[in-house]
Amino acid sequence: MKINKKITLLLLLALYLAPPGVAADELEIDGLLLDRSISRFGHQFYYEFSNYWRDLPSTAGFNIEIKETVIPKAGTKLTLVMNNQTIYATYLGRRLEPLNARVEQAVYTVIDAMARSNMATSSKDMALNGW
Q1: For residue 54, what are the CA distances in angstroms to 24, 43, 94, 103?
Q2: End-to-end Cα, the chain, rounded Å
Q3: CA gyration radius for the chain?
Q4: Which whole number is the average pLDDT over 50-72?
Q5: Rounded-to-integer distance, Cα 55 and Cα 49, Å
Q6: Gap between the Cα atoms of 9 and 15, Å rounded
Q7: Does 21 fall in a domain?
Q8: What is the CATH number for 64?
Q9: How confident is the model at residue 23 (pLDDT cuts 50, 70, 90)?
């Protein structure tokens, strides 16, 4: 028991005395994908979208939030928000419909929005409201 406490104390001391940039250089978090869906269809949309999201390169700096809002007697509204800006919205009915086309359309919209965002930040002669 004393050996475990000594090892833990040494590790904490080593982390405390390590330069602050060492841990920050190694940690890289890619873009976040947040699920705020409610229904089974919304969760299915999120699951299929997340499969595509994992395969996208260079998603660092982009946060995607999938929001679902209930519309009484009509179904739900699904919205994709990228960095606090709505980029895609679709309506899901009360009955199960194939989601593949909608998921692919959402992925293409997100890729386009990411490209436009990168172009707007990298080029000063482009208009700020490019989309």
Answers
A1: 23, 16, 29, 14
A2: 62
A3: 21
A4: 87
A5: 10
A6: 10
A7: no
A8: 3.40.30
A9: low
